[in-house]
Specification:
Zn(2+) binds at residues 303, 349-350. Belongs to the LanC-like protein family. This is LanC like 3. One of its GO terms (molecular function) is metal ion binding. It holds the Pfam family LANC_like. α3 (57-68) runs parallel beside α6 (111-124), α6 (111-124) packs parallel to α9 (161-175) and α12 runs parallel beside α14 (306-320). The protein has a two-stranded antiparallel sheet. The model is unreliable at 215-222 and 224-246 (pLDDT under 50). With 429 residues, the chain is mostly helical. The chain is built from 19 helices and 2 strands. β1 (211-213) and β2 form a beta hairpin. The structure holds zinc ion (ZN). Zinc ion (ZN) is lined by residues 223, 301, 303, 349-350.
Length: 429
């Protein structure tokens, strides 16, 4: 039976040699051409700035910034950064005018992420102005500190507290600045923990921390939130597709800031990580707690399943080097090799580049060139007729998460795998 979600992987596996045709000489022109294509479609009107970093123009600004940081693209640096600044300035104006403060505090769908990326681009251009968006970012702390600041669930990556912490982490990494005070970080972490405890208690769960979104349990990111959150924000009634996702972003963020946690809080987080670890079914994790995964058409996406959950175990492994965590990452990678040539486009959220990022993660964890080879094969596949003919078209081709901008980040990272990481979501900080 044909798998409706992914193409069959007919590539032979690694036999000791990388692909010869994928060096900088071949890849740089491909990246430059892809960026040209993106810039032809990205909106330049203030009224088209919605979607945040996820699939608004701001994501393109981030991609341009990312590419401009690589020495291989030094001849394009000035023009890419200049364009990035134009786009992010417009995005900043757009979120400054956003009346809903919760939306301004959102990472991937709203203002917090845009302010963070603006600061990075300004800093890269040597502009002293970079402190302005940083101040706006810091002021959002007050919005997301209250335990139930969003009715629909306050802790996740796209719009909630994990996202706010994630953007603080990105700033720390890129600018070398801890933008929030220790007390601010602590209070956000404590709110995530308290909210997880309350929910687990209320629902009589057999494990310590659990999160809900719209009354639905999940343990991490879910791009359906985008639809539901916009619906919430613009008060438009539309059918809400609430899917249960079983991933782990809240825990990644708590582990990233574990120095801010008490001993008892750390214990709770590690217990939860191990609980999650034990939910594995044949190298994957169910979208719904306790659900049985159907092997035929299982979800293998960054936003649903092993390619996303793997980052939690990578983070855990980087902290304490316990082999069982690395083993979970490796098992995830095996499933992605089999089922990761996705038909939902080229992107990083639920597309081929998102799958391939798992191989780059595994390369950084293990140093095994097999994973670079696998990432190269996935990159190669993106340019085949089979992929073009058989993959679903993307609404916003410039999107960082669903379109080509994330793909460009991946192609660039593949040229320097030692520094590769999923865009705006690093476990190596
Ligand atoms: Zn997705």
């Amino acid at each position: 039976m044909e798998n409706t979600r992914c193409f069959a992987n007919r590539f032979s596996d690694y036999k000791g040699a990388l692909l010869p045709g994928q060096g900088a000489e071949a890849a740089v022109p491909v990246v430059v051409a892809s960026i040209d294509k993106i810039l032809q479609t990205v909106p330049i009107d203030l009224s088209d700035c919605d979607g945040g970093l996820y699939d608004g123009p701001a994501g393109v600004a981030y991609m341009l910034y990312h590419v401009s940081e690589f020495p291989l693209f030094s001849e394009y640096r000035d023009v890419y950064l200049k364009t990035a600044k134009q786009i992010i300035d417009m995005s900043v104006r757009y979120v400054d005018a956003e009346p809903d403060k919760n939306m301004r505090a959102a990472f991937l769908l709203g203002g917090a992420g845009i302010y963070a990326v603006a600061a990075m681009i300004y800093k890269s251009l040597g502009l002293a102005d970079f402190v302005k968006p940083l101040t706006k970012f810091r002021n959002l702390w007050e919005v997301c500190a209250p335990i139930h600041f969003l009715e629909c669930g306050s802790d996740e990556l796209f719009v909630g507290r994990a996202g706010y912490l994630c953007s603080a982490l990105v700033l720390k990494q890129k600018l070398g600045i801890e933008i929030l005070s220790k007390d601010q970080i602590k209070s956000i972490c404590q709110a995530i923990i308290e909210s997880g405890k309350q929910y687990a208690r209320k629902k009589r769960k057999p494990f310590p921390l659990m999160y809900s979104y719209y009354g639905t349990e999940y343990l991490g990111k879910n791009h359906q939130l985008r639809a539901t959150f916009s619906a919430l924000v613009i008060k438009r009634k539309r059918p809400l597709r609430v899917e249960v996702t079983f991933t782990s972003t809240e825990f990644i963020m708590l582990l990233s800031y574990q120095d801010m946690l008490s001993g008892a809080e750390k214990d709770l987080v590690w217990q939860s990580v191990d609980f999650l670890m034990n939910q594995e079914q044949n190298c994957n994790w169910p979208a719904e707690l306790g659900a049985i995964i159907e092997r035929e058409n299982e979800l293998v996406h960054w936003c649903h399943g092993a390619p996303g959950v793997a980052y939690l175990f990578a983070k855990a492994y980087l902290i304490n080097k316990k082999p069982q965590y690395l083993d979970k990452c490796i098992r995830s990678g095996e499933l992605v090799w089999q089922k990761g040539l996705l038909k939902k486009g080229p992107g990083i959220c639920h597309g081929v580049a998102g799958s391939a990022y798992v191989f780059l993660l595994l390369y950084r964890l293990t140093g095994n060139s097999k994973y670079i080879y696998r990432a190269q094969r996935f990159a190669e596949f993106l340019f085949t007729e089979e992929f073009k003919a058989g993959s679903r078209s993307v609404t916003r081709i410039y999107s960082l998460f669903e379109g080509l901008s994330g793909t460009v980040c991946f192609l660039v990272d593949l040229l320097q795998p030692d520094q590769s990481e999923f865009p705006l979501f690093s476990v190596f900080v």
